[in-house]
Amino acid sequence: MKSPLWIAPCLLAIIAAVVRFPEAASAASGTLDPLPPPLAMPKPGPTNDAPYAPQPILQGGVVVPLYPLDSPFLKQDRIREAEQYNMSKSVPGRINSIINIHNPSIEVHTVEGGLNTGVAVILAAGGGHNTLNVGTESADFVPWFYNHGVNTIILRYRLRHDGYSSQIDAVNDAFQAIRLVRAHAKDWNIDPNKIGIMGFSAGAELAAPAAIFFEDFDKTNSAPTDPLAGISSRPDFVGLVYPGPTPFARGGSPPIPRNAPPGFITCGGSGDRVHAIWADEYLAAMLKAGIPNVEMHIYGNGRHPGDALPDGSHMTGGLSDRNGTPFGTWQDRFIDWFRDLGFLQKPGVETKAARDIASFLSQPQRGTERRAASGQGTK
């Protein structure tokens, strides 16, 4: 018996559907196709006879090494080694942290012209100088700052874990980053008078010295052969977020320049007591020196990132909301401070911060300010 004429076209239609939509066939058979692998996974650059070329950790990042390849700051026997990424186990493509940084760099993420304030914030992540926590304390801030018109610079500085001095090599990387961003300000549509640094935990051990020792760094690195000679390493603002020890810790009393930049400081309180004390020492020194526009927020309920919790989990840092507690809104307080000082105006508009510093410099020093400027303290 012959099949009806309509069967052949129906079979052809079914075959075509299976070819076009294979998942329909899988569903019909009761099984799902395997998921595709994640795309565009970041990975360190290749190693060869050339110095290692740092790769962007976020799409669109412009990566610039901090130093010329023949710089005496670099260890020539190690600059060919690749960085090592610690990837998230649950979020494909997310870099939690980096080690083995021997060719330090900045990664630049700019803002659309109509939104751009001209501000650039250099982010120095923490990690106890054993790792660089670029996930929560750098990468997460790029889209957040973008929405405020702020250009973001991720700093990959050298670590004690890899044989470097956190007080010399890492701090020099911070100064160099500021100079490098200022040198390329026109290329990136950045206002050269609105460049600052925000450090988290160990990263704050770079940001705090940057606010104090910039004149010494510029004098030391002023040789005619230095391509950045004559470009100031002074930050226009600093942020210290749950900071590690500053130059004022353990009885330190370094001289404070009268043009030290304004600072924003935040930390948990009794739950992060040691870091809160370091934060308070920095604030007290700046207040004694009379430096304008230094603001601090210490939260009663707050702990340090990485601290163990009773349920076995660990505190997170950066932009996390910290279970809805007030400490989870510190970044909003930073934006309040930032806007109040005029940093979120259009590029080229003088900030209130700059005017206040100029006014302060025009006034005669008081006794406590003189002692702070000379590093003698107030006793």
> Taking Cα atoms only, what radius of gyration do you get, to the nearest Å?
26 Å
Helical stretch tally: 11
End-to-end Cα distance, whole Å, is 112 Å
Q: Report the principal-axis shape.
A: globular
Mean pLDDT, to the nearest integer, reads 91
Main β-sheet: number of strands, strand sense, barrel status? 8 strands, mixed
Order of helices and strands: HHEEEEEHHEHEHHEEHEHHH
Q: What's the structural domain tally? A: 1
Number of DSSP strand runs: 10
Per CATH, the class reads Alpha Beta
User: Into which percentage range does the β-strand content fall?
Assistant: 5-15%
CATH superfamily: Alpha/Beta hydrolase fold, catalytic domain
Your description of this structure?
There is one protein chain. The protein is an alpha/beta fold and 379 residues long. It has one domain (62-307, 342-374): Alpha/Beta hydrolase fold, catalytic domain (Rossmann fold, 3-Layer(aba) Sandwich), CATH 3.40.50. Helices cover 28% and strands 13% of the residues. It is built from 11 helices and 10 strands. The chain has helices at residues 7-20, 22-29, 135-139, 141-146, 169-183, 204-210, 214-220, 273-289, 330-340, 352-361, 367-374; strands at residues 62-65, 84-87, 95-99, 105-109, 120-124, 151-156, 195-200, 238-241, 263-268, 294-299. An 8-stranded mixed β-sheet has the order 1-4-6-5-7-8-9-10, with helices on both faces. A two-stranded antiparallel sheet has the order 2-3. β9, α8 and β10 (294-299) form a beta-alpha-beta unit. α5 packs across α6 and α8 crosses α11 (367-374). It is globular and about 85 Å long. The N and C termini lie far apart (112 Å). Mean pLDDT is 91; it is low at 21-25.
